[in-house]
Amino acid sequence: MLLEATLVTLAVLVALWLAPWRMLVWPAGAGRERTLSPLISPLLATLVLLPWVWALPTLHAMPLQLQWSGACLVVLMLGWPLAVLTLVAVGVLACWFSPAMGWAQALGTIAWLGVVPATFALLLGALIRRYLGACRTLGVESENAPQRDQFLPDSPPHSGAMGQEDGKKWVAAAHSQPTIPKSDRLLGAWIFVYVLGRAFLGTVLCVFVSAMLAQWSGHTLPGVDEGLSLVGHWLMAWGDGFITGMFAAIFVAFKPEWLATWSDKLYLHPPPR
Prior knowledge:
This protein has 273 residues and is mainly α.
């Protein structure tokens, strides 16, 4: 219990220091009044739905008490600082909704289903953004570099290369034609890096690693051996990843303003030339 209390306390202190509540209000600007942020909608939806999901194993008898985390989806929607505070509130509400869930169990749920996978999702997102930034830099450099066979010297008269002159000039003419830049050809792949890499597979990895750490720290499933417990956590991680990837794809297409971690500049717009 001391480990969970330490993890949650540190995460909450860092989140409070970052003052994430500023994301919930858009300040007044030129021709615009002070308004609420669209992130209010996913925040309220999380507070309404996720506590019941976390409290579900204590509300009725289950042979295998596995829980859906949802923390990675909350991070994608709200960002890590606001997600941490929201997940703590979710754990408190889950304990309040379920009389069978004690405060010690609620603290463990907040730590291993909320704070830890959310922090892993934050680190994974930082690595992905750094990778995309490096790809943009390399793409710009490769597009600005001279292309092979772009400039061909004319062969001297009666040289042995005269028979190949027409073919080489055709190659040079082909390279001089307008082509689609490499960064634009790979543009669609960058969207799938967010949806498949960060939202789907990233969630599977973050949730399963968090479950393993929880099991090694003593949070085992009652009446289930260690091997079967890992199998159950592995399958639940894939379910968590599927739900997170599905909602991320829907929000990217129809409600990108509900994703605090989404960036049109990073995942849509080509790099400057």
